[in-house]
Fold:
Amino acid sequence: MAQIIDGKSLAAVVRARVATEVRQIKAQGGTVRFAAVLVGEDPASQIYVRNKQRACEKVGIEFELHTLPANCRYEDLTALICRLSADKTINGVLLQLPVPPAVVGDRLTEVLNLIDPQKDVDGLTMANLGKLVDGGHGLIPCTAQGILYAIQSVCPDLTGKKIVMVGRSRIVGRPTSLLLTNHDATVTVCHSRTRNLAEHTRSADIVVVATGCPHLLTADMVKKDAIIIDVGINRLPDGKLVGDVDFDRVSKIASAITPVPGGIGPLTVAFMLKNIVAAYCRQHGG
Structure:
């Protein structure tokens, strides 16, 4: 039976470090402030934002939420993003995704790039993604950091490890593949157009799955003692939350696996907090 990679416990360690850093900043007279922007009333997005608010409050980061209706104008959203980016009292800015297509259309990248790269705690501006490509020191996407942290909790040295990243989204797949490559892993990216997916995953030491397809990765697609990182979170018709991995069966073959829920989700929020403090330090010459 696989070792369960407990994202909640790992995230608690990260949060404790962040809380210590925030206390030190406050002792020096500083205040760490974070602004989240939520467009529309998507229930899942509202839950994610509340989780981020609670996480901020627990470590001493001031949180403010800015909401816009689902029928707002594109110009309303861009004006708000620009105002928050220009506000010197705000250290981090995050646009909760997804944004209603009626608002942004195919211009989401343009909107994200309005965020000051030094305040881009999601790490999704072209400036920060470009630094990741170059191996530089920008703000790294939170989920990618969480995935790396989870993997290194059971496999500290990734040098030469064969990793298959299933999914190529801007938010998870692409930045994660870059980050793992920067840690000297040999990374193959698979996606919806990949032929014979199982041939790739069966040869991997580590498989990371982020597709939004329930139980996509099955036991016959995994080699013995592989490490499995499940980033997916899907709600079945009966209300049960499951990942992109058939956990019950794959866990009998893998050496380590993340659960859903309680795996990468808590780590994503923890590394968002870490990025907020990192953003503060960059803005104050730290």
Summary: The CA atoms of residues 225 and 255 lie 4 Å apart. The domain at 142-265 is CATH 3.40.50.720 (Rossmann fold). The mean pLDDT is 97. The chain has two domains: 30-117, 142-265.
